[in-house]
Predict the structure.
Amino acid sequence: MPDTLMPDHPTPALSVPLIIGGHWDLARQSPEAFTMIVVYRGLHCPICKSYLQTLSQHYAAFIGKGFSIFTVSMDGEERAKEAHETWELGDIPMGYGLTRGQAEAWGLYLSQSFKDNEPEVFAEPGLFWVRPDGRLYLTDVSNMPFARPDLGVLLEKADFILDKGYPARGTLAA
């Protein structure tokens, strides 16, 4: 069962290989505002393609607001490279090889394939904003491919959040 991450608390470690070589490590990120991590289901997902293409359209605007952006899935290197290339994601950094343990630590739902083109097990979508000090600010985790936050709305709210110092919400345990 996945863990539930608590806003305003430290996030789990996250380090995965990059499709361009080397490794991406959350602990090494130093954005002005937030690191946005977008977990997508994998190459097999047409909704992921559309979502990441929308992210690509907003990429420069998020960077301009002080964000560092990163995408990752449980896909292997070849499938991740194919997704990045065929989906025309431009400059968006993409990792691959998210492990089951990492997915569970980040509170992601896991699914088992029921179609031939799906990996045997894959993570369902998640979006996270992590403060420069490693504390979670925003989390949106779904068990379905079509339930994701609107990137345009998030971009619109970024200035308000940053200008007003809007605190992380949902910080009290149930």
Q: What stands out?
A: The helical segments are 46-64, 77-86, 100-105, 151-164. The chain has a mean pLDDT of 95. The chain is about 30% helix and 20% strand. Residues 34-162 form a domain with the Glutaredoxin fold (CATH 3.40.30.10).
